[in-house]
Amino acid sequence: MAVSVEVPIVSHPRPLTPTTPILIYLPRGPIPLPPKPPLISPLPLSTTSTIVTINYRLSSQTRYPTPVHDVVAGYDWVTKNLARADGSSSSSSSFPPITVCGELFGGSLAAMLALTECHACRSRPRIRAAALGNPLTDWTTIFPQPSSPGQTSASQHPTPLLPPSALLKLRSTLFSTSSSPFDPFASPVLFFKTPATDLPPSSPFSSPSSSDADPTPSLSPKRRSHRRFPPFYSGLVLPTTRISVGTHSGVAEQGTELVKAMRRSLDLYSDEEAMKESGRGRAPDVWAEHAAEDRVGVKEESGEGRAGKESENREIHERIELFNKEGTGLWDEEEMWTVGRWADDVVARDG
């Protein structure tokens, strides 16, 4: 079935060349939160990239995986029509760098796209960088919150942006079945680790009610395990990533968990490269070794090894950045400007 999705080109520099970077912006989605979504106008003023918006569909009538299909279709259009190769043959082609950005649902979809289109091969378009704001990256961690004894509406702690009750209602509204949130394309953290609870039987979500009742109240948290991502020999290389979360955001932990998972993956792959260079064992062995260390929680290193590891950690933290913003952390015009400048800096630094 053909997918029709709006992909307006917001602005592009003149003249447009095969090496002109591309920045894809994904709107925040159907979350009626104040303030209103930020104007996209600061982006053209802060970046030399061609700016494209993918207006994906997401509502109670167009549930997941519709937005995933829309974003992938929009990305395919961008790569076929804007990401022209700079080279006379496919073997020597070099495509322009692509950055993807978005917040909330847009941040989730941007993460999904960046993690699956970050090809190392230079003979095809690839996403080099991703900027995410308060991304919704793991729908399996959301559970009904029991009321504390003596809790009143006049709590000393104000309700955060997107508390669990709001997320539960969004989950039952925007996903067609109870198992849909367990798809890594909807919950990108699941590329890196197992779900926070057992996969429920796939049954249709009932229409959301005013009571915000959770459709799967019997589920409870369970111990999680790490997954290998990117897969070995997949040809994927994690993109440079900037994630911002609000200190007063109910989804801050989701963004933080994605940062931790991506940094851990880079750390393990750097250890694999060291093992291959030294000729010690097969590359995949390091993943089992690290899994054992995670369970035991003990690892000894020499002074030289610690110094080298600290240097690697700095590089990893620079490649996968986390910014904690005061308040909700929702993007405003200033943050949009920052994202545009950051995208240009990444392109200039990484080439």
Describe this structure in words.
By secondary structure, the chain is of the alpha/beta class. It has a 7-stranded mixed sheet with strand order 1-3-2-4-5-6-7, with helices on both faces. β5, α4 and β6 form a beta-alpha-beta unit. The protein is globular, with a radius of gyration of 21 Å. About 10% of the residues have low confidence.
Label this structure with key terms.
351 residues; alpha/beta; seven-stranded mixed β-sheet; 8 helices; 34% helix; 11% strand
Q: What's this entry about, in short?
A:
With 351 residues, this protein is an alpha/beta fold. The protein has helices at 42-46, 66-81, 105-116, 164-174, 252-278, 285-296, 303-319, 333-350; strands at residues 9-11, 22-26, 50-53, 98-103, 127-133, 240-246, 320-325.
